[in-house]
Design brief:
alpha+beta; DNA repair; DNA_glycosylase; 3-methyladenine DNA glycosylase; about 40% helix; Endonuclease III, domain 1; Alkylbase_DNA_Glycosylase/TA; globular; 15 helices
Length: about 325
């Protein structure tokens, strides 16, 4: 049973020009095997937990009409469709961005369809961001997959049913109470240490208060998130970039971003947060957008140090 489907078509405003659906939504996908988001058959599929319940969302570009066609299933289908314009960047204001470097100007020219998405769902971005603290991205994505597959629920509609088109079912992340009931050994088997699991448990215990951040400005939302022990500026920025489309939520404390930004803009190989923020100062109010554009150039410093060590605590 696939259940009833709701449909909405959305066209970007006329001055926008092209809309880069796949690139814009890619920031919400946690690795190529994310059970909650994937690209299948030329469409982006999302499994999400809305305030009205689980929903599955299929987003497909209609190039001829210049629109995005969205189909949704589940109790949260109407909520998901109501939020479709924000999810696709309708509340973003790229006109406020003025390139100050030649590299950024070229990236801006090459990516006219770049828009900052806005999910409006705090835990959906906060929990995987906590999982990514101080470990490799690969390890964090593996933990996210295991936790969703074992403790989430199958997505409504065709996304949650194995088929030729969807050989691997998708999963909606657990509700806060389910996260709170995950036993310690399950966190361990997923490779999540006590520090990160404890932070997640503190967050889900305050889920309603944290969800209010989706309707705050960047400063207030950051304060709300960082009031939880274990959530610092890095995690807050990574979360709010996705939840409220925060154009100025620059990520500090990252292992790679400062070196990448500094190298791309200056050729210097030893960039740190201080130097990155100095270079991004002309983009005040739009620093996250600037870093997104810089990352699209593929200009990265030569690797001189070994990769971040991988520690599989599930085997300890």
């Amino acid at each position: 049973m696939t259940g009833a489907v709701s449909v909405r078509r959305w066209a970007p405003p006329e001055p926008w020009g092209p809309h880069d659906l796949f690139h814009n939504l890619r920031v919400l996908q946690r690795g190529p095997y994310d059970p909650a988001q994937r690209v299948v058959g030329g469409a982006v599929w999302r499994a999400t937990r809305t305030p009205c319940g689980p929903a599955a969302l299929c987003l497909e570009p209609d190039a001829g009409a210049g629109e995005v066609v969205a189909r949704a299933w589940g109790p949260g289908a109407e909520w998901a469709l109501d939020g479709l314009p924000a999810l696709l960047g309708a509340e973003d204001d790229p006109a406020a961005f003025v390139p100050r470097h030649r590299l950024v100007a070229e990236a801006h020219r090459r990516r006219p369809g770049l828009r900052l998405v806005r999910t409006g769902l705090v835990l959906e971005s906060l929990i995987p961001s906590i999982l990514e603290q101080k470990i490799t991205t690969e390890e964090a994505h593996r933990a996210w997959r295991r936790l969703l597959r074992r403790h989430g629920e199958p997505a409504p509609g065709p996304a949650g049913t194995p088929s030729a088109a969807m050989p691997e079912p998708m999963y909606v992340m657990p509700e806060p109470r389910t996260w709170a009931l995950i036993p310690s050994w399950e966190w361990h088997r997923a490779g999540v240490d006590h520090k990160r699991s404890s932070t997640i448990l503190r967050a889900v215990a305050r889920a309603r208060r944290l969800q209010e951040a989706a309707h705050m400005d960047l400063a207030a939302a950051t304060a709300r998130l960082t009031a939880i022990p274990g959530i610092g500026p890095w995690t807050a920025a990574e979360t709010l970039q996705r939840v409220i489309g925060a154009a100025d939520a620059v990520t500090v404390g990252d292992l790679h971003l400062p070196r990448t930004v500094v190298y791309a803009l200056t050729g210097e190989r030893d960039g740190d947060d201080e130097r990155m923020l100095e270079l991004l100062a002309p983009y005040a109010g739009q620093r996250h957008r600037a870093t997104r554009l810089i990352l699209t150039t593929g200009r990265v410093p030569p690797r001189r140090a070994p990769r971040f060590p991988r520690v599989d605590i599930a085997r300890l």
